Amino acid sequence: MATEGHDLSAYDAARLTDCASFRIGIAVAEWNSEITYALRDGALAVLEKSGVTDVHVHDVPGSFELPLASQWLLKHKGCDAVIAIGSVIRGETAHFDFVCQSAAQGILRAGMDSDRPVVFCVLTDDNIDQSRARSGGQHGNKGVEAAVAALQMVLLRRDLDSGSNWGTGL
Ligand code: DLZ
Questions:
Q1: Could you please report the per-residue DSSP string of 19-74?
Q2: How confident is the model at residue 12 (pLDDT cuts 50, 70, 90)?
Q3: Whether the model pTM is above 0.90
Q4: Domain ranges, ordered by start, for the chain
Q5: 88 lines ligand 1 (CB under 6 A)
Q6: Closest Cα to atom 13 of ligand 1
Q7: What mean pLDDT do residues 45-65 have?
Q8: Residue 169 binned pLDDT confidence (cut-offs 50, 70, 90)
Q9: How far apart are CA 102 and CA 66, in angstroms?
Q10: Average pLDDT in the 8-24 region?
Q11: Which residue, judged by its Cα, is nearest atom 23 of ligand 1?
Q12: From the alpha carbon of 91, which atom of ligand 1 is closest?
């Protein structure tokens, strides 16, 4: 899935105002931590710039653990949204497919079951160069994009709850 032409890393910060009261969780896989910590830092930079100070960051062993950790952050910490950060790099076995599938479906389910946004920030690359390019390299930082998506979804939810028809316009 190409992301050319849709680089949220160059987002419009002016449209992410009024987020200071949000509580955001971040679950970070320790596998491929060079990549996941760079994604985390990208996400944190967006949250800081948007005035979000109530941020709960927790490491988990690998991407497979992201769904449950996300659910815990929503249910036990009362987060408005969670950013689930991982990096799965293809190896010689079928492990890649199982971890990717489980992470994607579990993250979706955590959000649906909790009725809160759980943003999918799991890179699924063939090699580490591709991952580096997307975690602060030539293709931007997908952690930045994930944080923008999380804030956009919380703003949308707030607008819908208040009866607005206008959305966030991002
Ligand atoms: C086992 C495993 C493998 C082979 N590869 C990755 C990977 O590339 N990225 C990742 O986030 N996690 C990997 N894991 C670990 C699993 O996600 C999980 O932590 C373990 O299977 C324990 O449940």
A1: -TT-EEEEEEE-TTHHHHHHHHHHHHHHHHHTT--EEEEEEESSGGGHHHHHHHHH
A2: confident
A3: yes
A4: 35-158
A5: yes
A6: 62
A7: 97
A8: low
A9: 9
A10: 84
A11: 64
A12: 4
Residue indicated by tokens 């659910």? 71
Residues tagged active-site = 95
Q: How many residues does the chain have?
A: 170
- Supply the residue whose CA is at minimum distance from atom 9 of ligand 1: 88
What are the pLDDT digits (tens) for 124-164?
Answer: 999 999 999 999 999 999 999 999 999 999 999 999 999 86
Q: How far apart are CA 78 and CA 60, in angstroms?
A: 19
State which of 36, 37, 63 you would mutate to test the pocket of ligand 1, scoring each by most atoms of that ligand within 8 A of its C-beta.
Answer: 63
If you measure from the C-alpha of residue 11 to the centroid of ligand 1, how many angstroms do you get, rounded to a whole number? 31
Which amino acid would we find at residue 29?
A
| Residue whose CB lies within 8 A of the most ligand 1 atoms, among 28, 88, 121, for a mutation test | 88
CATH class of the region 35-158: alpha beta
